[in-house]
Design goal:
Elements: H1 2-24, E1 30-32, H2 34-49, H3 51-56, E2 65-69, H4 81-102, E3 109-113, H5 122-128, E4 142-149, E5 152-159, E6 162-164, E7 170-172, E8 187-191, H6 198-206, E9 212-216, E10 224-230, E11 236-245, E12 260-261, H7 266-277, H8 280-283
Parallel strand pairs: 2-3, 3-8, 8-9, 9-12
Antiparallel strand pairs: 1-11, 4-5, 4-11, 5-6, 6-7, 10-11
Helix pairs in contact: 4-5
Length: 285
């Protein structure tokens, strides 16, 4: 009976810890048990192992529009840091290779679809999309977004084959330097309720970029940054430490509102393509 009571106490303590983390972070932070970590690791291996195939053949209807369905990159926290870093670069390079393959000289505009991107690690997504991103002019590197915390604003910067944010994260690859045949090109971002966390970071990176417009429904409202803390019992506490912003420093951690509200489904993609084809880059081509 004492053992059963002790087990119940642990379950209650962990439930309280999980609820406290979630409430203090607007639902983004949480406590993850060792068993759940194992399940997440297996899911990450399946998901990330199929990224190249997923990125290689998305649906393409209009030969003048490049459609990029940006899937989430789930970090496998059971692997070493070097293994995780290598996996991040592999995802980013696969995404850039997809852009290079589509960039056949006929594409005049691009759709970045994060409507089903529920998050993960943002850096592989941003590095992969670097050919479509054009940060604000800055001697330290173009600004495409940022983190705001009690310590101030930490910009996300783009460089030659790199995306960085000081000590909060970065990703570099000498191979991730593809340049579009015609640049800059208009970009339509497709988003919705399934766009969360790092998916929202991608949408924020394009917000305010000249020649960019978003379509769809409001996002999930988890536009904040998390930091995992490994506990002694093998569980993990995911703590929310900042709010994501766009390149102008605007962001409150809540739902992102698209520039143009459209019904979920094919009508959103149609609206995005219609807008792209009306842009000078497509009308003059």
């Amino acid at each position: 009976m004492q053992l059963a009571a002790a087990g119940s106490d642990r379950v209650l303590q962990r439930r309280v810890l999980d609820e406290a983390a979630a409430r203090s972070s607007g639902g983004h932070g949480r406590w993850i048990s060792p068993g759940e970590q194992h399940q997440r690791s297996q899911r990450a291996q399946r998901l990330n192992g199929g990224q190249s195939a997923a990125l290689s053949a998305p649906r393409q209807d209009n030969p003048r529009i490049g459609i990029l369905q940006v899937s989430p990159f789930v970090e496998d926290l059971r692997k070493s840091e070097q293994e995780r870093y290598t996996a991040r670069k592999a995802y980013a390079l696969a995404l850039q290779q997809r852009i290079a393959t589509l960039d056949d000289g006929a594409r005049c505009g691009w759709v970045v679809d994060v409507s089903s991107n529920g998050g993960g690690n943002m850096w592989p997504m941003l590095l992969g999309l670097l050919p479509l991103l054009h940060g604000t002019t800055d001697p330290e590197g173009g600004v495409i977004g940022g983190f705001r915390s009690a310590g101030g604003l930490q910009p996300w910067r783009q460089g030659e084959g790199a995306v960085t944010a000081g000590g909060n994260g970065s990703l570099r690859s000498r191979q991730a330097t593809y340049t579009l045949r015609v640049s800059p090109a208009p970009v339509a971002v497709v988003m919705g309720a399934g766009t969360a966390s790092s998916g929202e970071a991608v949408a924020l990176a394009f917000r305010g970029q000249p020649g960019s417009r978003s379509f769809g429904q409001p996002s999930a409202g988890l536009s904040t940054g998390n930091r995992p803390v490994l506990l002694l019992d093998g569980s993990m506490l995911v703590l929310t430490g900042n709010v994501m912003t766009d390149r102008s420093g605007q962001g409150d951690g809540a739902k992102l509102q698209p520039d143009q509200i459209t019904p979920s489904g094919p009508s959103t993609l149609l609206a995005a393509e219609t807008w792209l084809l009306a842009q000078p880059a497509c009308k003059d081509g």
